[in-house]
Amino acid sequence: MEFTIKHGSPEKLKTGTLVVSAFADGQLDKAGKALDKASEGKLSALLGRGELDEKAGSLVTVPDLAGSACDRVMVVSLGKQDEFGEKAWRDAHAAVAKALLAGPSAEAAVCLADIELPGRSVEWALSQLARTIADAAYRFDTTKNVSRSKRTRGVSKVTLVTRNRPTDAMKAAVEQGRAIAEGMALARELGNLPGNVCTPTHLAETAVELGKAYKFKVEVLERKDMEKLGMGSLLSVARGSHQPPKFIVMHYKGGKSSEQPIVLVGKGITFDTGGISLKPAAEMDEMKFDMCGAASVLGTFKALAEMKLPLNVVGLVPTTENMPGGSATKPGDVVTSMSGQTIEVLNTDAEGRLILCDALTYAERFKPACVIDVATLTGACVIALGKIPSGLLANDDELARELVDCGNSAHDRVWQLPMWDDYQELLKSNFADIANIGGRYAGTITAACFLSRFAKAYKWAHLDIAGTAWLSGDAKGATGRPVPLLSTFLLGRCQSRGD
Ligand code: BES
Ligand code: MN
Ligand code: ZN
Question: Which ligand is nearest to the CA of 345?
């Protein structure tokens, strides 16, 4: 998707589709008023007849509007003026993005960046708009024979029209929105690929290619390297699989060499059968999405490299399948993690934490400024929070607050759950230092408590994306979350330092 910013008279814009907005009472935005004037009242007459449904995101398209240079004008409803807020604003954006990607025009001009939302800047609006439109262009057809590159409709060039002359900050904001959508597209693609294609080896190859394309260092540790490091917990999950496990280490160095890196860790279970504690058959196919944490780390690296952020970031991806088999780990087995702590594997389906804990120990060597892990970790998180926010647990309240703020700004929201010490006793084991499950209660919290035992050396936050990484049913597919949150977090870390 190609974006440009322009200011000036919308009625003179020669483009395919020109998008303006109106409230439910028919009141057009500034660009809409200019078009209306040029058309001698045709547009307002049309709205006056009730052609535009009042629900935010409803659309009406007017071809060949008199006085305008474009092929068609699209008016999007912002809903009732007294109910207007971020939800209506987003519904309008999403509807426009969808329509532009389905419509006949290859080029469009969108006049939505100047709609005022309390507390939000025009740069913020531009970045969100660019991201929404670019993300709407993503299609999955990699494993289809027929529809590949069949898309002939939809925009590929978008002009974002603003009231004021575009500044460098506005251009940068659009570029950020576009870069984030590219990162999301990579995360979505990896998530959507089936388990027989997206193996640990495929994730490792993708990371290596990313490193080559953007010139950052990528290491891939093999089973023997992990054995040497003592990653007995990670390796215990890989025992049932015929696919070799990988441990991917990405080094993005955009900051000073003395600067402590931010470490991102992503769960990369390329298929989770549950292992010997086998999952039921219904919807088991969705466990191909159990590497969406890993995919979001790779996607964030893509966005980060596209934006050329002046930061040091390390990406860690422990990746393996979780399969049953003759040599698979059994319930009751005790394994030794890289930290030295022993773990009683009471349920082989609680495997995410078993691969993450060794990655968290590995992270210590980077003396990180902070560590954020991202994982489709618990079904309990979907029960608690649904598919709206990701779960957030942290050993540092300031870091948690920063992530909550970034999630709100990026509309990739998170909700913090408590991680009080009181929960830790649920993880007691008679046979090891810790058990890998905590019983029926507070499953998301006990999973995070487990991880916290391996994250004592630094500031750490955990994102449980079990509910947010993909959608089910008709819309089944990866969402690309939390790439927007993580990218916004990294952007924030640059800005707070003043560069
Ligand atoms: N990958 C699953 C979590 C999951 C389940 C995410 C369903 C999204 C939808 C994870 O490895 C898992 O199986 N967790 C278990 C933990 C339990 C055994 C303590 C779960 O949530 O049931
Ligand atoms: Mn599992
Ligand atoms: Zn899993």
Answer: 1
Cα 265 to averaged position of ligand 3 atoms, centre (Å): 15
Tell me what the mean pLDDT of segment 457-478 comes to. 98
Q: Is the pLDDT of residue 467 over 80?
A: yes
Query: What is the rounded average pLDDT of the residues 59-75?
Result: 97
pLDDT of residue 150: 61
Report the nearest-CA residue for atom 3 of ligand 1. Answer: 378
Nearest listed ligand to the Cα of residue 269: 3
Strand partners, 343: 335, 434
Q: State mean pLDDT over 246-260.
A: 98
pLDDT tens digits for 321-358? 999 999 999 999 999 999 999 999 999 999 999 999 99
Same-domain pairing of 232 and 329: yes
Same domain, 352 and 382: yes
In a domain, residue 175? The reply is no
Q: Are residues 42 and 158 in the same domain?
A: yes
207 and 152 belong to one structural domain: no
Pocket lining for ligand 1, CB < 6 angstroms = 272, 290, 347, 349-352, 376-380, 382, 437, 443, 466
Q: Which residue has the higher pLDDT, 250 or 497?
A: 250
Average pLDDT over residues 367-372: 98
DSSP class per residue in 295-340: HHHHHHHHHHHHHT-SSEEEEEEEEEEE---TTS--TTEEEE-TTS
171, part of any domain: no
Residue 334 lies in a domain: yes
Assigned token pair, 163: 């009231």
The verdict on 129 and 185 lying in the same domain is no
* Structure confidence at residue 152 (pLDDT): 72
Specify whether 285 is located in the same domain as 233.
yes
Task: Give the CATH number for residue 423.
Answer: 3.40.630.10
In terms of pTM, does the model score above 0.70? yes
Domain that holds residue 8: 2-166
Opening angle at CA 390, ends 174 and 412, nearest 5: 15
What is the domain count for the chain?
Answer: 2
Torsions phi, psi of 221, nearest 5?
-85, 135
Domain presence at residue 326: yes
Which pLDDT score is estimated for 496? 80
Are residues 425 and 456 part of one domain? yes
- Tell me the CA–centroid distance for residue 430 and ligand 3, in Å: 25
CA torsion sign for 112, 118, 123, 126 is negative
- pLDDT given at position 495: 84
**Is residue 490 over pLDDT 70?**
yes
Asked whether residue 359 falls in the same domain as residue 482, the answer is: yes
Active-site residue numbers? 279, 353
